[in-house]
Specification:
By secondary structure, the protein is an alpha+beta fold. The protein is built from 20 helices and 23 strands. It has a 7-stranded mixed β-sheet. A 5-stranded mixed β-sheet has the order 20-19-21-22-23, sandwiched between helices. It has a 3-stranded antiparallel β-sheet with strand order 5-4-6. Strand 4 and strand 5 (100-102) form a beta hairpin. Helix 2 packs across helix 16. The chain is globular and about 95 Å long. It binds glycyl-adenosine-5'-phosphate. Glycyl-adenosine-5'-phosphate binds next to strand 10, strand 13, strand 16 and helix 16. Glycyl-adenosine-5'-phosphate is lined by residues 225, 227, 257, 259, 268-269, 272, 274, 276, 339-342, 379, 381-383, 385-386.
Length: 521
Amino acid sequence: MASNSKNDVMEKIVSLAKRKGFVFQSSEIYGGLNGCYDYGPLGVELLRNIKEAWWKEMTLREDIEGLDASILMHPKTWEASGHVENFTDPMVDCKKCKSRYRVDILAEQISKKNLSKIVKAIAPALYEAAKDNADLKSILSVDGDTSEEYITTLSKKADDEIFSMQVINFALITPALASLALKEIVCPNCGTKGEFTEARQFNLMFKTFIGPLEESSNAIFIRPETAQGIYLNFLNVRESARQKLPFGIAQIGKAFRNEINTKNFLFRTREFEQMEMQFFVKPGDDEKWFDYWKEIRYNWFIRYGLKKEKMKFLLPDKLAHYAKAAADIEYEFPFGWGEIEGIHNRTDFDLKRHTEFSGKKMEYYDEQTKERFIPYVIETSAGASRSFLAFLVDAYEEQELKKENSDGTTSSEIRVVMHLHPALAPIKAAVFPLVNRDGMPELAHKITADLRKNFNVFYDESGAVGRRYRRQDENGTPYCITVDTQTLEDNTVTIRDRDTMEQIRLPIDQIRNFLMDKVLI
Ligand code: GAP
């Protein structure tokens, strides 16, 4: 790739996404709506292909059923799931400019020098608070017989950036320390020091009203994850599909979160799509299935083209309120590593809670062992939109091509190419007449119409053929089919491979099978 900083690469991808019709900012003509995006003509195809690849992988097997539950659910769903109580982030507002910050994001924006300064400034209060706060004591892990010794050691440790960040994060959500810490922090937006409100819990669920009256008894939430629709239908699906454990339920759908800090293009948005599967197992078998699904899901991303060296598992330090174990599949985006899918061992948490809140027993009766129990759940939860971003970023390449000029000198040009997996590529093939005469356009139109019965195919006759190739390279079209003089003689066409730029000749009647082999999901 031509030398680019990581920021440049992201900027170029965002710009290509707009220019080529992959992704547009929502409501752009009104100045845009933060955290919401629209998928254009190429984007919608890529997104559909990603979802189709996931759906086929997950549901074309005996032990998984599909579901499409409604986005709006009974409000008790979210009390039972723990989202009303726990799906919150601590937030502070700058009193001067009214900017709102998630506490951990605010801490991230403090310079290294100031981090240690803040810890030193609040060291006496930390010493006092640690006396009866075991968590803080363990974070500080400082010994000292006298308060002076303790504070001196603590102040020395404060030069360690990670240590100070952890201490400040903790202080910001601890009532006895928060106002002291906030006094030392500068607003990243307006530069005012120490003018923040205290941290308050902010729920990330969108609320609306069902029916004509906007009163609290009619308030409902717009789902922040698709998983709950699956739990609510556990008994319906098991009975109607006559499934036995272990079995899963898969669903693709929109989810909504009132994220405070939307960032990095499609990575963290307020409206996004999830591809989730809940696999119900006998308690005791959960760890085995957790490992199984980790591997299957990781390999799916590799199979559809993500580079192995850009992927890793992360075992998060902090588990969600429902999880006994979790493994995040992370991808290295130009802005850093980020989760694209979470595999969670949710135990019997959700089914148990829905049993408590609904009064309906979410149990399974094992006919062989004559046991009745609440199944454990292994969840695979991928973002369709985040996967889209990962596939888009991973596919992007700038190649420097050298060419010999007629006067003997050499020059170079940059070829931008999207190496999307052929099964995911929005357009499967482009068909060109080499020139716009001698019956070539008519034949190329005929080939296009014929292939369109099965594939998304694009016809293009404008400009030099080299430019047409370049346009398709940017679209990620894996094959370009050209009708040339030889076609008129022997009914063969050239097929050019996007990645290698090599061409082969193939009889027209073999193109369909050629494409079938390469592009079917
Ligand atoms: N049901 C479990 C669950 O929702 P999560 O880790 O909160 O778990 C799962 O979300 C996946 O959904 C993430 O790995 C990510 O791909 C996607 N996701 C979550 N929040 C998102 C957001 N604000 N924007 C885009 N994708 C998001």
